[in-house]
Task: structure prediction
Amino acid sequence: MRYKITIEYDGTNLLGWQEQLDGPSVQDYLQRALSCFTPAEEINEAPLSDEEDEDASTGERLQKPNKIVVFGAGRTDAGVHATSQVAHFDLKEDLVDWKLREAMNARLRDMEAPVSVLSVEKVGLDFHARFSAKGRGYLYRILNRRAPAVLEKNRVWWVPVPLGVEKMRQGAKYLIGHHDFSSFRAAACQAKSPIKTLDKLDIEVCGEEIHFIVEARSFLHHQVRNMVGTLKMVGDGHLEPEDIKRILEEKKRSAAGINAPACGLYLTKVMY
Result:
């Protein structure tokens, strides 16, 4: 049986989604939570497509013997959070959805994991959390006030200087659409092509916070954080809105602005 799960996690003390040898990750916690169940037989994974998600490392290709491998829709980096990450895995057992959810959450609580399973549902074997996805949505939160963050520490990017929201919105318009995003691509990005289509980049004021709502089929490594960091420099006057067009056209990372910290980024939706 193949199971699709929706999860949330606080990435503050995690090394990201991908299983690591030197520290905790979301994938590792979930696989440990499933260790008492019986893994399915070896499963051949679909080939990598040209469309990569935010971390384009290859990762697991086969179900390992005697180990349940959990495949995620987006491989978030260390410090990045999620309110609606999607993953899948295969078990021999045919289990009641809510009972599997409760069992996984009980084990996650025992491990004091900052991860929670929100829902479980059975899906067909043709479903793949990553390759079946038609789009992903992210939220980036900036706390824009003089007083530092206390309750929201490690969950927002605290920017104490005033930011010009209208100027950032003007700059964001240049990023919408089909472009070569080399200027907003991390040096370690393994995606085959820097060309992506950005469907949405809205900037909203929510009290003392500024929210960047971003959607696309897929993203380059650090693309969202690099775009937000560059737009922040428009907001504080270091760049003009028209500079975003120039930065895109230069197609080199050194042309763009800073990489916004991971703590403000959330994976909020995966569309199928």
User: Anything to note?
Assistant: The radius of gyration is 19 Å. The chain is about 20% helix and 25% strand.
